[in-house]
């Protein structure tokens, strides 16, 4: 799967966002070493603190399907009509949740952070998860 296809999967997931309060739809797509892609979108709640981020939803779906590791890449997209168009990155909670899945398989996945430029084209910043969450705490710290 190409990076562009992974980003397209994240954009497709964002179409199912439930974000009536922020109106900020986010999509995430997780790529695994067997080429499987699992997507998620943000789900808000009237009790704001109970909202779920797209990355957390995707990781929960993957783990519910029995996946433990094998994470090679992640794409995260935001809405084209919000913010300054800069690439968005996973929040701190999502970085930790992604790290848990990555550490289970001993991977350091690429995170494709996607925004929308002035011409409507994707602007992508790719960074390793370890750069987004240095000195991460995870399963290896407990055993």
Total DSSP E strands: 5
- Biggest sheet record: 5 strands, mixed
Q: How confident is the prediction overall: mean pLDDT?
A: 95
Which stretches of 5+ consecutive residues score pLDDT under 50? none
Strand content: 15-25%
Description:
- Helices cover 29% and strands 22% of the residues.
- It is an alpha+beta fold.
- The chain has one domain (3-136): 3-Layer(aba) Sandwich (Cytidine Deaminase, domain 2).
- A five-stranded mixed β-sheet has the order 2-1-3-4-5.
- Strand 1 and strand 2 form a beta hairpin.
- Helix 2 packs parallel to helix 3.
- The model has no long low-confidence stretch (mean pLDDT 95).
Give a concise summary:
By secondary structure, the chain is of the alpha+beta class. Helix content is 29%, strand content 22%. Strands 2-1-3-4-5 form a five-stranded mixed β-sheet.
Summary tags:
alpha+beta, Cytidine Deaminase, domain 2, globular
């Amino acid at each position: 799967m190409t990076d562009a296809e992974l980003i397209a999967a994240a954009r497709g997931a964002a179409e199912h966002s439930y974000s009536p309060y922020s109106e900020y739809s986010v999509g995430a797509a997780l790529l695994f070493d067997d080429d499987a892609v699992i997507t998620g979108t943000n789900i808000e709640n009237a009790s704001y603190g109970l909202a779920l981020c797209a990355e957390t939803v995707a990781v929960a779906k993957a783990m519910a399907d029995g996946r433990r590791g094998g994470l090679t890449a992640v794409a995260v997209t935001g809405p084209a009509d919000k913010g300054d168009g800069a690439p968005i990155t996973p929040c701190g909670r999502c970085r930790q949740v992604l790290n848990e899945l990555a550490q289970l398989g001993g991977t350091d996945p690429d995170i494709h952070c996607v925004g929308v430029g002035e011409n409507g084209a994707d602007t992508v910043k790719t960074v390793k998860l370890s750069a987004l969450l240095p000195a991460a705490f995870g399963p290896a710290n407990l055993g």
